[in-house]
């Protein structure tokens, strides 16, 4: 429900942290009916927020 609401209001990036699966779902490119780009990144991956160039978050630091 929140994902659709955020996309409708043009929130550029939306993350869902799944502690059980140890992964982050990154939603980008909002459209009226949802996000055009959705990517699931596991504990060994990195996430780079689009609005913070040069910032890289190692997910292994989050899921210990």
Mean pLDDT: 95
Described by strand count, sense and barrel closure, the largest sheet is: 3 strands, antiparallel
Overall form: globular
SSE topology string: HEEEEE
Low-confidence segments: none
Give the helix tally.
1
Radius of gyration: 12 Å
First-to-last CA distance: 29 Å
Strand coverage percent = 35-45%
Number of strands: 5
Q: Based on helices, strands and strand pairing, what is the structural class?
A: mainly beta
Task: Count the domains.
Answer: 1
| Strands in their spatial order, largest beta sheet | 1-2-3
- Helical proportion, percent range: 10-25%
Could you list some keywords that capture this structure?
mainly beta, two-stranded antiparallel ribbon, 1 helix, 44% strand, 64 residues
């Amino acid at each position: 429900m929140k994902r659709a609401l955020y996309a409708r209001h043009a929130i550029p990036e939306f993350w869902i942290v799944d502690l059980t699966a140890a992964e982050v779902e990154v939603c980008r490119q909002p459209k009226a009916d949802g996000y055009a780009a959705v990517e699931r990144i596991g504990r060994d991956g990195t996430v780079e927020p689009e609005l913070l160039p040069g910032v890289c978050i190692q997910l292994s630091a989050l899921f210990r």
